[in-house]
Design brief:
TIM Barrel; eight-stranded parallel beta barrel; 12 helices; alpha/beta
């Protein structure tokens, strides 16, 4: 059963791997070399799908100084078409809708093959950012132009902790045509479980079937990376931060925490009947962090094969 079928049938239990395209300044030959290395590195993982992020400058999100400078990256759709066209599974291409005019989005949506492409639309990071196309309008364009193109949306457990209404946002996005959700990086397992629980029971009360939620996990190789996650709005519990700060190997410790969080969410979602996926995010350019992300994906693939419904 392929990724689209697992989503539309609401069975879940899929494994994704998420990447950022190379920097915009990367020469075509170097971009192809990166794509070839990526292909060989990920080929053995038995992935159900690949995610390509659309990176935007999110300075409006947080007035504090950004721990890492913003460096524009290649358009994920262009990178896929020019350098990863042979990738064998469906690919989820993110679109930061505020960056694109309606005509640009209309053209891109109309060129996608729903059999091999999916998308996630992401709205503006704050109300201060200039918006070319609103998230709502982008959702309407997809419905008008390519209703068979599976549309996903972002879920943010931390926002649920702060405001208590993220589950209602998911319902609204579901009613706007979304077929699945992908979370921000999860470090606080209780925040994720609260969101899943509230969403599950809200769906039950409304007579709706819950959509698959892909939980995102990422390894953290340094305290500066941890600070960047915090800048992006990821809540890292104090005890985990303490553990990472004092670990002999921060990278290995973060891998263990990510795996433990996934292992807690898998049976929880199965118990509530909420279909789910696991998404390993690898956005670092450091080889050791990339390889640790691959190891995490290998471990999570094994967990999906054990103790629950058959994935294939």
């Amino acid at each position: 059963m392929d990724l689209q079928q697992r989503i539309t049938s609401r069975r879940g239990e899929f494994l994704l791997f998420a990447l950022t395209p190379p920097r915009l300044s990367t020469a075509p030959a170097a971009a192809q070399e990166i794509a070839d290395v990526t292909f060989e590195r990920l080929r053995p993982l038995d992935l159900d799908g690949l995610i390509l992020y659309d990176i935007d400058d999110e300075a409006d999100r947080n007035p504090a100084e950004r721990p890492f400078p913003f460096l524009p990256t290649m358009d994920p759709g262009d990178y896929l078409d020019r350098h990863l066209e042979a990738w064998p599974t469906p690919v989820v291409v993110y679109r930061a809708t505020a960056k694109y005019t309606e005509d640009e989005l209309r053209d891109w949506i109309g060129c996608q093959d729903p059999a091999t492409r999916m998308t996630v639309f992401v709205g503006a990071p704050s109300g201060e950012k200039r918006v070319e196309t609103t998230l709502r309008r982008a959702q309407q364009l997809r419905a008008e132009i390519a209703p068979d193109l599976l549309l996903g949306a972002v879920a943010i457990p931390e926002r649920h902790t702060r405001k208590g209404e993220e589950h209602l946002r998911l319902i609204a996005k579901q009613e706007a045509g979304c077929s699945y959700f992908v979370t921000q990086v999860v470090y606080d397992v209780n925040a994720a479980k609260n969101l899943v629980s509230d969403y599950a029971y809200e769906c039950r009360d409304r007579g709706l079937d819950p959509l698959p939620i892909a939980f995102t996990f990422s390894v953290c190789g340094s305290i500066k990376t941890l600070e960047f996650l915090r800048w992006l709005g990821v809540d890292v519990p104090r005890w985990i931060e303490n553990d990472l700060r004092h670990a002999d190997d921060t990278l290995d410790a973060s891998l263990e925490h990510a795996e433990a969080t996934a292992l807690e969410l898998i049976p929880f979602c199965r118990h509530l009947g909420v279909p789910f996926g696991l998404n390993v995010e690898s956005v670092s350019i450091r080889r050791v962090e990339i390889e640790a992300s691959v190891r995490l994906a290998e471990r999570l693939a094994g967990e999906l094969h054990r103790g629950g419904p058959c994935r294939r």
